[in-house]
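In this section we walk through a basic example: taking a raw amino acid sequence and producing a predicted 3D structure, encoded as discrete structure tokens. The instruction is simple. Fold the sequence below.
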Amino acid sequence: MNTVTVTASKTYHIYIGSSLLSSLGAEAAKLGKAKKVCIVSDSNVWPLYGQAALDSLENAGFQTVYFVFHAGEHSKNASTWLELLNTLAENQLTRTDLIVALGGGVVGDLAGFAAASYLRGIRYIQVPTTLLAAVDSSVGGKTAIDLTSGKNLAGAFWQPSLVLCDTDTLNTLPRDIFQDGCAEVIKYGILYDPSLFSHLEEKGLSFDREAVITRCVELKRNVVAEDEFDLGSRMKLNLGHTIGHGVEAKSHFAVSHGTAVAIGTAIVSRASNCADCERILSVLQAFGLPIRTDYTAEELYTYTLSDKKRSGGSVNLIIPKAIGHCSIVPTPVEELLPFIKAGL
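The resulting token sequence is shown next.
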């Protein structure tokens, strides 16, 4: 097992390794005071790992309730969020109690936002069961739901109290969902770590999971410690996301997050004439990720204008110059359309 410690507005540990789910109750008990725990999960993950999570928590002496919603990005909305809040209230969870997010990025975002807003904030534990959640969304405290106008437009910064990443849960992921998470793994290599990128080039989908997840989490830990509230250097983590979110929104979320990020990364790499563009495109393809979209530049531009990272008349694009060297480039809105066209 590997341990990474995040020091931000709250200090917490991230445990990464095999057979960790059974220790959920014992680790939750170390946080102190809580009597009740609400497990939040979705219809895909709950049948696989719900009972194990319940057993671990109950064996540690917790009273448990659970909230399971239909899997998919379309459930990450205000209606589901309010339903979860009402579930917490009806079961009389208090400020000293806990929420456990058992699932992928949608579960973590929704449960985290409920934790941030219920009783003005209660503690929560992230138990990521997808690669994407393990390396990215479970770490750093970004929580959100989607609005009809765009993705993640309502949310809060609310750090978890613990992240428990059991790598065994990745074994039950469908291949396409695992590949989806690989887009975020590749992102970390492009942004910060040529050695990580080279490892991915060499190993492909057979990369060392525990080591790679740990490295990605370390890199994100460093960024969060420097810029917890996404006002500066943390913006770099949005590589491929601004245009990628446009792909997601245009597809009405039929295109998955990782797939959309891969497309967005390919577009900005081509449009910026990145020195390592061909290496980036080759790795994305080697991991089974797309590098093209059938959507027009005009369609993507329209949805990109609703992106939460827009600031007045400009959008902060993350531009890869070479592997390990990326820049935050404020781009006037009127220059965004030709930029997208150049990258298609």
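Looking at the output, two observations stand out. The longest strand covers residues 314-322. The chain has 13 helices and twelve strands. In the next section we compare this with other chains.
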